[in-house]
Every structure is written in C-alpha cells, then in structure tokens.
Amino acid sequence: MRIDILTLFPEIALAPLSDSIIQRARDAGLVDIHGHNLRDWSQDKHKRVDDSPCGGGPGMVLQPGPLHAAITALKKESTRVVLMTPQGAPFKQAHARRLSLETHLLIVCGHYEGVDHRIVESLIDEEISIGDYVLTNGAIAAAVLCDAVIRLLPGALGDAQSAIEESFSDPNLLEAPCYTRPIEFDGMKVPEILLSGNHAKITEWRKQQAIARTRQNRPDL
Ligand code: ADE
After folding, report:
1. Percentage above 70 pLDDT, the chain
2. d(CA 88, ligand 1 centre) in Å
3. Of the candidates 105, 166, 192, 197, which lies 20 to 30 Å from 1 by C-alpha distance?
4. CATH number of the domain that 204 lies in?
5. Has residue 161 got a pLDDT over 70?
6. Do 171 and 88 belong to one domain?
C-alpha cells in the first residue's frame, strides 16, 4: 500500500508514523508513506494557500487552486482520496478495514475553517472525522487514520489474532478487562476465574464483562 499525505504540516502527520509498529511495517515494505506540503503547489510569491471565506465570517479557507494542483498531481486511477475534516463521517473500525484493502490512499488534511467546497465535490472520494471535537489541523487526524489502517495490513502486527479479537471487531461490544502478573498487586487480586484454567468459563466470563463494560462506558453501542 502507498499513502500520500497532503498537509501544511507534513512533520506533524509523519512523526507518529515513524516509530514502533508502523515504522516496522514501513521498514518491512508493507506501506510506503509520503508527506507533501500543500504550499509547494502555491502559485503565490508568499506561498499563500488560504483566503477569507466568501460571505464573511471568521477564519480562513484553503483555496481551490493549490489543492487542485496537488491532488491531481498525486492522484492516480486507483487512488482513494480522503479528506480529514470535523465535518466528515465518524471514523470507525469498519472504515479502517475497508481502507486497508486499498492500494493507494491520498489523505488531504483540512486546516483553518475548511477547504473550498468545489474541491470536496470534484476531487474528494470521502470525508472522515476522527471524533466530535475540533483539532488545530487535519494532520493529527491523518496520523490517527493511518495508524488504524496500517496495523491491519497483513504482517503488520506480530500476533495476527490480536487484530481480530480486540474491541470493535464486534462494533457493538468493547473488550473485557485484562490482567497480567503479579497475581496480587497492591492488595488487589486477579479474578479467580482467569486462573482456573477452565477456558469455557473464562470465555463466558469475558463475554459478560464485555457486555457490562459496554453498558457502562458506551451505552450508545
Ligand atoms: N480536523 C480538525 N478536527 C478534525 C477531526 N475531528 N477529524 C478530522 N479532521 C479534523
């Protein structure tokens, strides 16, 4: 898979993707990631890429010219073009799974008030938000999306099972609590059932715990 990230801040997008599991996936050739600075496509002598919103209002809007030039230069026939924006569809594990099957992602990062909507209509395949809050820029959101997608690429995780059994494999259920040694810590013990060796009972306990945890933390699921 190849991923191109178009942003005013390539370093912000790339920093979290340059360590640990994602860097190992890059080293293993599972994913080829490139950051691009939108200013490189500015025609302006000051490298401007934004202007005030038509109709008035606060903030600045990314102009269509540099975005059009950059996206058409980076996009190929098979590219899926994703815009990171708080106005997008809420990012779910199902999006990550679907995007992990693509061969080329071009991730466009919004900034300031947003991007000129003519670009959204003509060149963007889908708009994604990583949550109902507003970040300073979409590069942070792009890094989140890339992490979630790349870890699903075959070979990216050491233990392939961990990608299957975790939270959101069943999108309506969180994972059960987990424990490790020592068996007693600061007066608190690991639940007896997990030490019983009875795998059927452990599976049933985990299922009940998962349901209880979901009710408490995510009643919306
Ligand atoms: N840019 C700013 N906030 C964002 C969000 N919540 N998701 C995606 N991109 C964003």
Report:
1. 95
2. 8
3. 166
4. 1.10.1270.20
5. no
6. no
For residue range 144-155, list pLDDT tens digits in order: 999 999 999 999
Q: How many domains would you assign to the chain?
A: 2
Last residue of a domain, one of 117, 150, 183: 150
> What residue owns the CA closest to ligand 1's atom 5?
86
For residues 136 and 116, give the distance between their C-alpha atoms in angstroms, rounded to a whole number: 18
Average pLDDT of every residue of the chain: 95
Using an 8 Å Cβ cutoff, are 82 and 89 in contact?
no
Nearest CA residue ID for atom 1, ligand 1: 138
pLDDT of residue 27: 98
Q: How far is the CA of 107 from the centre of ligand 1 (A)?
A: 12
Residue 167 has pLDDT above 90, yes or no: no
Residue 50 CA, chain-centre distance (Å), reads 25
Tokens 């994604």 map to which residue?
128
Q: How far apart are the first and last CA of the chain?
A: 32
Q: Is the dihedral of CA 107, 123, 131, 98 positive or negative?
A: negative
Contacts of residue 134, Cβ cutoff 8 Å, sequence gap at least 6: 86
Cβ–Cβ < 8 Å for 145, 130: yes
Q: Is 112 in the pocket of ligand 1 (CB under 6 A)?
A: no
- The band of 158, judged by pLDDT with boundaries at 50, 70 and 90, is confident
Instruction: Give residue 160's pLDDT band: very low, low, confident or very high (50, 70, 90).
Output: low
**What is the pTM assigned to this prediction?**
0.94
The residue from 97, 120, 150 where one domain ends is 150
Asked if 61 and 126 sit in the same domain, the reply is yes
